[in-house]
Design goal:
The structure is a single chain. 31% of the residues lie in helices and 25% in strands. With 191 residues, it is of the alpha+beta class. The chain has a single domain, classed as Aminopeptidase, CATH 3.40.630.30. The protein has a 9-stranded mixed beta sheet with strand order 1-2-3-4-5-6-7-9-8, with helices on both faces. Helix 1 crosses helix 2 and helix 3 crosses helix 4. The chain is globular. The structure holds coenzyme A (COA). Coenzyme A binds next to strand 6, helix 3 and helix 4. The site of coenzyme A has 20 residues, from strand 6, helix 3 and helix 4.
Length: 191
């Protein structure tokens, strides 16, 4: 069970993690993570090679938080503030929250992504409860699929991915509720 305490600084504390708004101060940690090929085994083309890719991403996420009141967090351990990764929900142009997570490999296998995902679903409901929480994943990423399921999302579509994948790999769309036709079409087009 995830216990959250919203402090005046907008930090969220779960059982084991400290979730804070992504900030420019996190760029070095974020780029180390997003340039690590180990975190892109399921989609090697997504790896950030140039530092500017990470800078752009952080700036986009900061802008999204300013517009929508919520965005991805920098995730650190509550005990010693060690960098764990990036995760949470971001508003999309498709009018749905996108649930995402990318953790440093040393942090895998401890239930951290599930802890982040549950906190994100709760935060999304508190921020805009009428907006579906959705996730997009490739079929070669069973750990990510397991996290979406544990967060309470259900599979609503599987088919050809919009990104180039290895043969036989498809995209999936997950959601926590029924979607409008426009939301569904946007998700499938961007799966
Ligand atoms: C996906 C990722 C965030 C998972 O992080 P994590 O903290 O290890 O995840 P958790 O420990 O919370 O849960 C992982 C779940 O996947 C399961 N799992 C892990 N590896 C698995 C595998 N190879 N096959 C099937 N299930 C697997 C675990 O058993 C667990 O399920 P359970 O809770 O039902 O037991 C992490 O692997 C990661 O950062 N990967 C690289 C980035 C990425 O793929 N992001 C998602 C893009 S859509």
């Amino acid at each position: 069970m995830v216990h959250q305490l919203l402090t005046p600084s907008q930090e969220i504390r779960t059982d084991r993690l400290l979730l804070t708004a992504l900030s420019p101060a996190d760029i070095d940690d974020v780029h180390a993570l997003f340039s690590d090929a180990g975190t892109w085994q399921h989609l090697p083309s997504g790896r950030h090679v140039a530092r500017s890719s990470s800078v752009d991403m952080v700036q986009r996420k900061i802008g999204g938080r300013a517009r929508h009141g919520l965005g991805s967090w920098t995730v650190r351990t509550a005990s010693d503030h060690a960098f764990v990764g990036v995760g949470g929900v971001d508003m999309t142009v498709g009018g749905v929250w996108n649930l995402g997570y990318r953790l440093a490999p040393a942090a895998w296998g401890q239930g951290f992504a599930s802890e982040i995902a549950l906190a994100a679903v709760r935060a999304a409901a508190e921020t805009a409860c009428d907006v579906p929480v959705t996730g997009r994943v490739l079929t070669n990423n069973p750990a990510s699929v397991a996290v979406l399921r544990r967060a309470g999302l259900s599979l609503v579509w599987q088919g050809p991915a919009s990104v180039r994948t290895e043969p036989g790999v498809e995209g999936q769309v997950w959601a926590d509720r029924a979607l409008s036709d426009a939301q569904f079409a946007w998700l499938v087009a961007n799966a």
